């Protein structure tokens, strides 16, 4: 194994773990049963608008990490085939 293969393997592993944790941090998009009972009255300004910025951040981070994972996977494949 070459040094490039080892480094790229480590990058793949780290990006996989970070993608998993980022996805786990995101809130579910499913409707909450309690919201149906009280009509959503328990929502506050912070819970409605503050969470959206966090959700957008996690969604953007997930996309960036997925692209990094894809690019590193392609690089590993090309390195293995041509070297």
UniProtKB/TrEMBL annotation:
* Compartment(s): Cell membrane
Keyword field: Cell membrane, Membrane, Protein transport, Translocation, Transmembrane, Transmembrane helix, Transport
Show the stretches that span the lipid bilayer: 6-25, 61-80
InterPro entries, A to Z: SecG (IPR004692)
Q: How does it sit in the membrane?
A: Multi-pass membrane protein
Q: Name one GO biological process term.
A: protein transport by the Sec complex
Pfam families for this protein:
SecG (PF03840)
Q: Provide one Gene Ontology cellular component.
A: plasma membrane
MF annotations from Gene Ontology:
protein-transporting ATPase activity
Sequence similarity:
Belongs to the SecG family.
Function, please? Involved in protein export. Participates in an early event of protein translocation.
**Can you say what this protein is called?**
Protein-export membrane protein SecG
List the source organism. Answer: Candidatus Egerieicola pullicola
């Amino acid at each position: 194994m070459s040094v490039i293969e080892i480094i790229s393997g480590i990058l793949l592993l780290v990006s996989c773990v970070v993608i998993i944790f980022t996805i786990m941090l995101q809130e579910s998009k499913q409707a909450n049963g309690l919201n149906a009972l009280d009509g959503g009255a328990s929502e506050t300004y912070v819970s409605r608008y503050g969470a959206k910025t966090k959700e957008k951040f996690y969604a953007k981070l997930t996309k960036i990490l997925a692209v990094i994972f894809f690019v590193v996977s392609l690089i590993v494949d090309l390195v293995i085939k041509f070297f």
